[in-house]
Design brief:
disordered N terminus, single chain, eight-stranded antiparallel β-sheet, alpha+beta, indole-3-acetic acid amido synthetase activity, GH3_C, 614 residues, GH3 auxin-responsive promoter
Length: 614
């Protein structure tokens, strides 16, 4: 019988890379790959067992009793009596746990803390309960990534990885439980701090620089160590593309200080954390030749290819570029001279379920295989076209709940919202991610990440989702090409303060100094192109109903989106998990960007629209 997670001997072998020969390491990789082969072949059987196991373990918890499951562990009864829910439906139970109620409300295992979501869209972070067992389950998930990469890029044990990692201070709930972003929890845990040496994941950053909670000191010291060990670096990255680009932009601003530290073998006086100082100075020795080389490269007029110039042995960039992160692909290509961009995993605060089994595929073709041992997965069919959007109401009627399909029953090309049942007490929980079935590995489906459900602009009956907005914005950029510029970042806001209300798109341009030489008519054409790329409901309301006003583009100062990120972090968001929100709903963030506006432009006329009487 297959285990619910990689067996302990496999985990021990793969974690104990310090004491075994390379041939034995490769043998343990083979076992991990066989595990992947097994779980993709037997996905439905494993899913059935996982659900039965979750319901057996938690048979007597309050939530399942409340809904009348009465100890049943079969799929049919579970689907009949347990409702499909969102976070709002769990808030009262989660607040009870956060306030100190230790009774088994959601799961039998004691809740050891909460993972916090980034909370960048609506300004509120979710508290996702976790247990000791679930945290360990996530850790086992991590060990499968290296064997997969080794098939495609051998020799990663011959050098280092410059991977930027950050931690946030932990918060305490009124009941004394720790609430912290998932990556921060991992970096502060014994799983990370006491991990054996792993030549396949030998980071240039000392642990002290990662655990440091001051974001400036952490990033500065990690960059310093990465630059000093530049010839040993075989891959670079961060959790998300934005996080890695933030490091490059930081380098553009602070390279003179970093060069001085490398030249003298000292560390800048702004780095005051004693543990960071000690860790960095163990690595850093005076190297004037390297400092001169970095200075020469960073002083050039163009930063194209700066990654391969400073870290010449880099084989690929490791960062998530799916969904809204795909807008950063051209920027990564520019800075890296087209290095492969690898997305190895798919996960979220609620669960870590997916692996990319073909990591060297094109970034826009990334698909993830869900690991059936991590949770029980269901899929809510989603329709996204001109008339129907992916923003279904949170409440599903009985018929809609019956439409949910199991992991092995999804259809190629169909889009679904992911629904999970986890060991930590989430039952038929709508994650909010919209996935498209891209193919199959044996019996297990592989999914493209499309967008987040519910991240929408809406003034009237129009609903514009994240992916539709992104495509529309990208279509409009063609008007800027003759002026050698594009947008570096964007977000949006549904402004209902005007009559009629209208969409606002905020742009921060790459070459901000070029903006003054661009005729206003060009930005007006951008506005119109965005509108003509949106769905027919929006265009009907603009043209026929006149209940939506002309779309507006606001050009903001250089660094405005960094200020937006700083604000989110000050409110508790994690640097590692931060993603620029594509739709602003939190008033202070709207006020922040409005205070940075340099110029604004409106669509000069209505978009094209033809009545559809179908």
């Amino acid at each position: 019988m297959l285990e619910a997670a990689p067996n302990s001997s496999l985990a021990a072998e793969m974690n104990n890379t310090n004491s075994i020969e390379e041939s034995q390491q490769l043998e343990s990789f083979e076992k991990a790959l066989k595990f992947i082969e097994d779980f993709t072949t037997n996905a439905d059987k494993i899913q059935n067992r996982v659900l039965s196991e979750i319901l057996s373990i938690n048979a007597h918890v309050e939530y399942l009793q409340r809904h009348g499951l009465d100890g049943h562990t079969d799929r049919d009864t579970f689907k009949k009596v347990i409702p499909v829910i969102t976070y709002e439906d769990l808030k009262l139970d989660i607040n009870r746990i956060a306030n100190g109620d230790t009774s088994p409300i959601l799961c039998r295992e004691p809740i050891t803390g909460f993972f916090t979501s980034s909370g960048t869209s609506a300004g509120e972070r979710k508290l996702i309960p976790t247990t000791k067992e679930c945290f360990e389950r996530r850790s086992l998930f991590r060990i499968l990534r290296t064997p997969i990469m080794n098939q495609y890029v051998p020799g990663l044990n011959k050098g280092k990885i410059m991977y930027f990692m950050f931690t946030k201070p932990e918060a305490k709930t009124p009941g004394g439980l720790v609430a912290i972003p998932i990556l921060s929890r991992y970096y502060k845990s014994s799983h990370f701090k006491e991990r054996p040496y792993d030549p396949y994941n030998d980071n240039t950053s000392p642990d002290a620089t990662i655990i440091c909670e001051d974001s400036y000191q952490s990033l500065y010291s990690q960059l310093l160590c990465g630059l000093y060990q530049n010839n040993q670096v075989l891959r670079v990255g961060a959790a998300f593309a934005f996080g890695f680009l933030r490091a490059i932009w930081f380098l553009q601003k602070h390279w003179t200080l970093l060069c001085n530290d490398i030249r003298t073998g000292t560390i800048d006086t702004q780095i005051t954390d004693s543990s960071v100082q000690e860790a960095v100075l163990k690595i850093l020795k005076p190297n004037p030749k390297l400092a001169d080389f970095i200075e020469t490269e960073c002083s050039r007029d163009s930063w194209q290819g700066i990654i391969t110039r400073l870290w010449p042995n880099t084989k690929y960039i490791d960062a998530i570029v799916s969904g809204s992160m795909s807008q950063y692909i051209p920027t990564l290509d520019y800075y890296s001279n087209g290095l492969p961009i690898v997305c190895t995993r798919y996960g979220f605060s609620d669960c870590s379920p997916g692996l990319n089994l073909n990591p060297l595929c094109k970034p826009n073709e990334v698909s993830y295989t869900l690991i059936p041992t991590m949770a029980y997965f269901e899929f809510l069919p989603v329709e996204r076209n001109n008339e129907i959007n992916n923003s279904e109401p949170n409440f599903l009627n009985e018929k809609e709940q019956q439409e949910l399909v199991d992991l092995v029953d999804v259809k190629l090309g169909q889009e679904y919202e992911l629904v999970v049942t986890t060991y930590a007490g989430l039952y038929r929980y709508r994650v909010g991610d919209v996935l498209r079935v891209a193919g199959f590995k044996n019996k297990a489906p592989q999914f493209n990440f499309i967008c987040r459900r519910g991240v929408v602009l809406s003034i009237d009956t129009d609903k514009t989702d994240e992916m539709e907005l992104q495509n529309a914005v990208e279509n409009s950029v063609k008007h800027l090409i003759p002026f050698n510029t594009s947008f570096e970042e964007y977000t949006s806001y549904a402004d209902a303060s005007t009559i009629p209300g209208h969409y606002v798109v905020y742009w921060e341009l790459i070459n901000q100094e070029q903006a003054t030489s661009i005729p206003p008519s060009v930005f007006e054409d951008c506005c119109l192109t965005i509108e003509e790329s949106l769905n027919s409901v929006y265009r009907r309301l603009r043209v026929h109903e006149k209940s939506v006003g002309p779309l507006e583009i606001k050009i903001v100062e250089k660094g405005s989106f960094t200020k937006l990120m700083d604000f989110a972090i000050s409110q508790g968001a994690s640097i590692s998990q931060y993603k620029t929100p594509r739709c602003l709903k939190f008033a202070p963030t709207v006020e922040l960007l409005n205070s940075k506006v340099l110029s604004n432009y409106f669509s000069p006329k209505c978009p094209k629209w033809v009545p559809n009487y179908k």
